[in-house]
Amino acid sequence: MDLLTDRYSDKIRGVLSCYDRVVIQGTLPGVCYAQGMTSL
Q1: Residue 9 confidence (pLDDT) above 80
Q2: What is the C-alpha to C-alpha distance for residues 37 and 28, in angstroms, rounded to an integer?
Q3: Would you say which domain of life the source belongs to (predicted)?
Q4: Cα–Cα distance measured from residue 37 to residue 12, given in angstroms and rounded to the nearest whole number
Q5: Residues near 40 by Cβ (< 8 Å), separated by ≥ 6?
Q6: What is the distance between the alpha carbons of residues 23 and 28, in angstroms, rounded to a whole number?
Q7: How many CA atoms lie within 13 A of 30 on its CB side?
Q8: For residue 5, what are the contacts with CB-CB under 8 A and spacing of at least 6?
Q9: What whole-number distance in Å separates Cα of residue 40 and Cα of residue 27?
Q10: What is the pTM of this model?
Q11: What is the C-alpha to C-alpha distance for residues 2 and 28, in angstroms, rounded to an integer?
Q12: pLDDT above 90 for 11
């Protein structure tokens, strides 16, 4: 099975890599209330 990046390499200009998930433990004081969540 080919990777999509290999299969379509002639159409791809670049690739971005990042973590697929982030686990956060604890609280984020700036977003612990409604107005803080909507300000993001």
Answers
A1: yes
A2: 10
A3: Bacteria
A4: 35
A5: 31
A6: 13
A7: 2
A8: 12, 15
A9: 16
A10: 0.35
A11: 41
A12: yes
pLDDT at 40: 63
For the record, the structure tokens of 5 come out as 């990046």
Look up tokens 């290999």; give the residue.
6
Q: Which string of DSSP letters, residue by residue, matches 7-36?
A: HTTTT--------S-----S--GGGSSHHH
Q: How confident is the model at residue 10 (pLDDT cuts 50, 70, 90)?
A: very high
Beta carbons of 24 and 30 less than 8 angstroms apart? no
Flag whether pLDDT at 13 surpasses 80.
yes
Residues belonging to the chain: 40
